[in-house]
Amino acid sequence: MTITIIPPSVNNHYGLLEQQLALQELVRDFAQREIKPLAAEIDEKESYPSQTFKKMGELGLMGLPWPEEYGGGGADYLSYVIAIEEIAKVCGSTALSYAAHVSLGTAPIVLFGTPAQKQRWLPALCSGRSVGSWALTEPQAGSDAACLNTVALRDGNEYILSGVKQFITNPPFSEAVIVMAMTDRLKGNNGISSFIVPASSEGFAIGKHEKKLGMRGSPTCEIILRNVRVPADQRLGEENTGFKQAMKTLDGGRISIGALALGIAQGAFAEALAYANARSAFGRPIGKHQAIAHMLAEMSTQIHGARLMVYHAARLKDANLEHTLAGAQAKLFASEMAMKVTTDAVQVLGGYGYVRDFPVERMMRDAKLCEIGEGTSQIQRLVIARKIGL
Ligand SMILES: Cc1cc2nc3c(=O)[nH]c(=O)nc-3n(C[C@H](O)[C@H](O)[C@H](O)COP(=O)(O)OP(=O)(O)OC[C@H]3O[C@@H](n4cnc5c(N)ncnc54)[C@H](O)[C@@H]3O)c2cc1C
Q1: Which residue, judged by its Cα, is nearest atom 35 of ligand 1?
Q2: Is 374 a known active-site residue?
Q3: Rounded CA separation 218/100 (Å)
Q4: CA neighbor of 165 nearest in space, from 192, 141, 200
Q5: What is the maximum span of the chain, computed from C-alpha positions, in angstroms?
Q6: Number of domains within the chain
Q7: Model pTM?
């Protein structure tokens, strides 16, 4: 394979490879045509765009960074990050469900699955027939993720799972959900295992659908497990290694939430910039008033910084280098940046920013999730503090 690096230019500040630029163009075009027209409606109606995921599967996006032998696209993680960014520019909800599908609902099978598990589950996930879900959080266990009440008791060649999972992205689309459960409570963190649980299993039920501030077109559900029997060969990796798997999964997932935040911010910035040129007050475009011009200058600078951090973390992951610190820093910076940029975008649009005829209020509501999901900003600071030697 020949790799062509396009030198930095007006259109490629970030040293992307030819194939990454081509993918960016492809996803941008698809997002504008197929995702943007639905974004306001799925937010308003809290409906889920299942057809979009089928189309994204046909386009090769649903398994973009996973091995071709299982139906994946064989692309690098940076390409996947670019795809999330392009989708998030127009629809945070679709981008969140996509990121949760790839980095949480599929990655653990790629990373820790046996060849038989990969053969059984990956083709459906990579084609978009099934959308992945990953269930760690419980009502009493969010940031304190190891404090699980869900248990998995060994019974011959099966495990019996019981418990309740909360705030899980995507279950209504999923053929199976990856569930973390206690297999040895006395061992704490080291007593957790993860399982691929078919949604058709007896005793498996989707409970409450959360009504949310933002990301309203992405399903967030409770999962109820009532004595669900799961064959032992559907356990991922060795028994009691589930927490380590979860931390490794989140290392990649955080980069994708950074990309989600980045895309939302870029989308809001584009709206604000266009509005600043079109709207006049006191005899000139509002963008010619220094207060608005400086706000937009600041937004573009913050977005640029976040993009450098998110792409850098993805490149470290692609090079198989340590990326826990870079991923946590990128997620923290990008999500707090997105909250500020989307809030300022609402300000640039004034009263029109506050009403639903324009997308920036939705983008502001969507951005907030990035400071919470896959570890809050407080937890990112904790991870960073540990990594820098505290
Ligand atoms: C839309 C959405 C989608 C989600 N999708 C998924 C999913 O697919 N799978 C999944 O497993 N989970 C998912 N989650 C759950 C998410 O990861 C948790 O909500 C998040 O980790 C925070 O946990 P919590 O809500 O229990 O808050 P808590 O842990 O109760 O935190 C409450 C507050 O206390 C702070 N805090 C807690 N501990 C500390 C500490 N040690 N130091 C400083 N501050 C602290 C937090 O930062 C926060 O501000 C999702 C959540 C949402 C809202």
Answers
A1: 378
A2: yes
A3: 10
A4: 141
A5: 79
A6: 3
A7: 0.97
Residue-wise pLDDT tens digits, 217-274: 999 999 999 999 999 999 999 999 999 999 999 999 999 999 999 999 999 999 999 9
Residue ending a domain, among 78, 112, 127, is 127
Show which of 240, 274, 300 is a domain's final residue. Answer: 240
Residue 10: is its pLDDT beyond 70? no
Distance 40 CA to ligand 1 centre (A): 26
* CA 328 to each of CA 19, 80, 177, 219, 251: distance values in angstroms, whole numbers, following the listed order: 27, 18, 25, 25, 8
253 near 245, Cβ under 8 Å?
A: no
- Evaluate: CB of 105 within 6 angstroms of ligand 1: no
Question: Alpha-carbon Rg of the chain, whole angstroms?
Answer: 21
Q: Which domain holds residue 221?
A: 133-240
- Ligand 1 centroid to Cα of residue 373, in Å, is 6
What CATH number should be reported for the domain holding residue 185?
A: 2.40.110.10
Ligand 1 center from residue 19 Cα (angstroms): 36
Residue nearest to atom 4 of ligand 1 (CA): 167
Pocket lining: 379 vs ligand 1, CB cutoff 6 Å: yes
Candidate from 206, 368, 376, 383 with most ligand 1 atoms within 8 A of CB, to mutate: 376
Asked if residues 253 and 179 have their Cβ atoms less than 8 Å apart, the reply is no
